[in-house]
Amino acid sequence: MATIKPFMPLRPLSRFAGAVVAPPYDSVSLEEAERIVWSNPLSFLKVLRPEITLPFYSNSKEKVYAEARKELILFLKKGIFVRESSPRFYLYTEIRENIKQSGIVGLFSCSEYGKVIKSSENLRASELNDRLQWIKHTEVQSGPVFLIYKKKNSLQNIVSKILNAFPTYDFITEDNVRHIVHSISDTNTINAIRKAFRNIRSLYIADGNHRTCAACTASKKYSMPPYFIGAAVPASEAHLTPYNRLIKDFNGLTEREFFKRMEKYFYIEVSERFNPPASKYSLSLYVNGRWFSLKLREKFVNADFLGVSFLEEHVFNEILCLNSRKDNDRIKFVIGNDVRAVDKGEWKALFVLYPLTVDELMNVADKGIVLPPKSTWFEPKFRSGLFLYPLRDIKDGSDDTLFEEEFNLWI
């Protein structure tokens, strides 16, 4: 049974919401963050990626985290964020073209993490520590972890009714995603949601593994509340895309030697252009100005085959002596098949994978199998900055409490 708890977040006034909300910290590069903040000074990326406001020569970790705290306080002092007047849930809907996902936003229990709330990815120690220190210094959680669950009709009936009400937020971000948020303060609806979640046996972390672990570690290490913000979406609405890999080198192998070793596992053909992998038993590779199609040899094919795990074990670990949990400077996780970084000589090769399915992800988690880091990418992503969960009293910020907003839509 899953537990969900209503909460009283700090959230931006509606007229500021579309400007404040920001992509999750790990979904934009430093250069992209700088461009966003330059064009939009209200972006919450100032708090999520505070190094963009610091001179390069003063970017010690402690100064970066202190800057995050400082930027957060500035947001609060300017009256951009106000505190909700009573505990509530939210329904956060994102729409992009033919994709629509609606997640119930609330607090989820750290005591259920690893049991009812299941993770299936290995964590990177450096990223986990970074999120832990960010939480320690800011004393807030800033964005919902993306959770999925097997569809329950009782919960979907509640969601359908909420969607018919007038929203608190309704805006479109620069990536053409429409964001609609409904506030749920009615006691009967809150109780109905909590009851419906008690009938959900498992929740699966689709995006936000490091944030979840950091939040639950902070609760023990720094005596913070044992909860994390999550947005729970039915698995049927979740949309998975490939999370690809750039690698820096062939670990001293020549290109010919590398391909010779790869032939043990794959049939390799040169392609005239990029061809997406046709199945989970194939992948695409870009090296030295050419695309290659790789198809798994029959003796390695089996029903439980997972391409991302096979690539990690047999190509990265065995052939390249590359550990994706530790070798941060030798691997980069990317979306899409942009090969400019390879053509410029900044990276050696690009691996394009066939995506896991949502069912595969849930099955893996149920079996206790651990995937390599960054095995999944869900789009669209829930934005940060709409719901701030204070882990302690923020005495230097705004004391305003939100009862009724003057504006319902940000324009």
Which class do the helix and strand fractions yield? alpha+beta
**Which value, in Å, is the CA radius of gyration?**
22 Å
Domain unit count: 2
The coarse overall form would be globular
Approximate strand percentage = 15-25%
Task: Work out the helix count.
Answer: 12
Q: Helix fraction? A: 25-40%
Total count of strands: 22
Mean pLDDT over the residues: 91
What profile does the largest beta sheet have?
Answer: 9 strands, mixed
Distance separating the two termini: 41 Å
Q: Please mark out the parts with pLDDT under 50 across 5 or more consecutive residues, or reply none.
A: 398-411
Provide the descriptors you would attach to this structure in a database record.
2 domains; 12 helices; about 400 residues; alpha+beta; about 30% helix; six-stranded antiparallel beta sheet; disordered C terminus; Conserved hypothetical protein from pyrococcus furiosus pfu- 392566-001, domain 2
Could you describe the 3D structure shown?
This protein is an alpha+beta fold and 411 residues long. The chain has two domains: 261 residues, no CATH class; 111 residues, Conserved hypothetical protein from pyrococcus furiosus pfu- 392566-001, domain 2 (2-Layer Sandwich). The chain contains twelve helices and 22 strands. The strands form five sheets. Strands 1, 4, 5, 6, 8, 9, 10, 11 and 12 form a nine-stranded mixed β-sheet that branches. Strands 15-17-16-19-14-18 form a six-stranded antiparallel β-sheet, with helices on one face. Strands 2-3-22 form a three-stranded mixed β-sheet. The radius of gyration is 22 Å and the shape is globular. The two termini are 41 Å apart. The C terminus is likely disordered.
